[in-house]
Amino acid sequence: MTDQEYMQMAIDEAKKAEVLGEVPIGAVIVHEDEVIATAFNLREKLQTTISHAEMLAIDKANEVIGSWRLENCTLYVTLEPCPMCAGAILQSRISRVVYGAKDEKAGCAGTLFNLLEDERFNHQVQVTSSVLEEECSQMLTSFFKQLRAKKKKKKI
């Protein structure tokens, strides 16, 4: 499968989050051309800080692989990883990250910082950005626009 096809799977995961009222972010982890984990944001439902799509997918992939090391894995995620997720990606030894939309407020895979390719760490991750960027960005923009409209309506 191509990066675009795997990213479409991550978008499908993000749509599951949106149905629950969660920020629509989805993640897919692929090992040797096989999807081993999928996840979407559950921070509001679970009320835990670490319930980002990437973190949940990494946890599932660890179970499947039977190790904390996710070498030779690619993580596809609809939004650029934040500092917390970038740290978990480094620590899990994921080889490659492919993301859709840039995160101007928290992106740590090239936008604000690039933790994943920083040579000061003992592991670096290959980063591919902007895969299906328009679709990923539009989904987030639409979600937050609707959220603001609901909040404005409640104030009236």
TrEMBL record:
Cofactor: how and how many bound: Binds 1 zinc ion per subunit.
InterPro entries per UniProt: APOBEC/CMP_deaminase_Zn-bd, CMP_dCMP_dom, Cytidine_deaminase-like, MafB19-deam, tRNA_aden_deaminase
CDD domains (alphabetical): nucleoside_deaminase
Pfam families from the UniProt entry: MafB19-deam
CMP/dCMP-type deaminase domain segment(s): 1-126
Active site residues per record: 54
Entry keywords, A to Z: Hydrolase, Metal-binding, tRNA processing, Zinc
Listed GO biological process terms: tRNA wobble adenosine to inosine editing
Enzyme Commission designation: 3.5.4.33
Single GO molecular function: tRNA-specific adenosine-34 deaminase activity
Entry cofactors: Zn(2+)
Residues annotated for Zn(2+) binding in this entry: 52, 82, 85
PROSITE patterns, sorted: CYT_DCMP_DEAMINASES_1, CYT_DCMP_DEAMINASES_2
Catalyses which reaction(s): adenosine(34) in tRNA + H2O + H(+) = inosine(34) in tRNA + NH4(+)
UniProt cross-references to NCBIfam families, sorted A to Z: PRK10860.1 (NF008113)
Similarity remark: Belongs to the cytidine and deoxycytidylate deaminase family. ADAT2 subfamily.
PANTHER family: CYTOSINE DEAMINASE FAMILY MEMBER, TRNA-SPECIFIC ADENOSINE DEAMINASE
Subunit structure: Homodimer.
Job of this protein: Catalyzes the deamination of adenosine to inosine at the wobble position 34 of tRNA(Arg2).
Protein's UniProt name: tRNA-specific adenosine deaminase
Organism: Gracilibacillus kekensis
The gene coding this protein: tadA
